[in-house]
Design goal:
5-stranded parallel β-sheet, single chain, Arc Repressor Mutant, subunit A, alpha/beta, 8 helices, 2 domains, disordered C terminus
């Protein structure tokens, strides 16, 4: 993304000159404080935002972070500041309206370049897409597991019918549990389902006061 647009919220002229030299391959836009940044975002949203904390006119960058995330939910934000306490850095990187990275001043230019490249490639919309893909994979795995468990249960219940279906005696639940390698309550639930479906007579199953809990 060589033509990526980066909005830099920085009031220090010398620091901005450093950015101009180091990030010449990007299209840079400058704002002196959070208010100017909001106006710039309204005109043309950037692909990435670099945010200082202590800004012109007494404004503080972190105070604007929630608004920036509201307007730019898929845009990575890199905080570059030497004025943040540890708890402020941690707070800025947590929660739904968080920054993606927090670098100290004086900033290491090589680290800044690597961070920007990573952010443009991995964060923002790409991050959201990966999250949705992961969610879909998780749902597919859950669906496959549920299908497998359902198939196993039906197969076991059919086998139980073969073993006890013609018997007039009550089934040995412990023996069936050992036969199929499951818990006694699983066999009890199988018998209850077979009775509810009319595949077994109620008298072949002992009386129970409560339905056993799920495994």
């Amino acid at each position: 993304m060589n033509e990526a647009k980066i909005l830099i919220v920085e009031d220090d002229d010398l620091q901005y000159e450093i950015y101009e030299d180091a990030l010449a391959k990007y299209h840079l836009v400058r704002a002196l404080n959070g208010s100017q940044a909001l106006a710039a975002i309204a005109k043309n949203a950037p692909n990435l935002l670099i945010l200082d904390h202590v800004l012109a006119d007494g404004e503080l960058g972190l105070d604007f972070l929630p608004e920036f995330k509201e307007l730019l939910p898929f845009v990575p934000i890199i905080i570059v500041s030497g004025a943040l306490e540890v708890h402020q850095r941690i707070q800025a990187l947590q929660g739904p309206r968080r920054a993606h990275y927090c670098l100290p001043k004086p900033v290491d230019i090589r680290e800044l370049k690597r961070t920007i490249e990573t952010a443009l490639q991995e964060c923002g919309e790409n991050e959201v897409v990966r999250q949705f893909e992961a969610l879909e994979r998780s749902r597919r795995v859950d669906a496959q597991e549920l299908f497998s468990r359902s198939t196993d249960r039906l197969s076991r219940q059919n086998r139980i019918l073969e073993l006890i279906g013609k018997s007039q005696e009550r089934p040995n639940i412990s023996a069936l549990a050992r036969e199929f390698g499951v818990a006694r309550r699983t066999i009890i639930r199988d018998l209850q389902e077979l009775i509810r479906r009319g595949q077994l007579k109620a008298e072949v199953y002992p009386e129970w006061e409560e339905t056993p809990p799920e495994d």
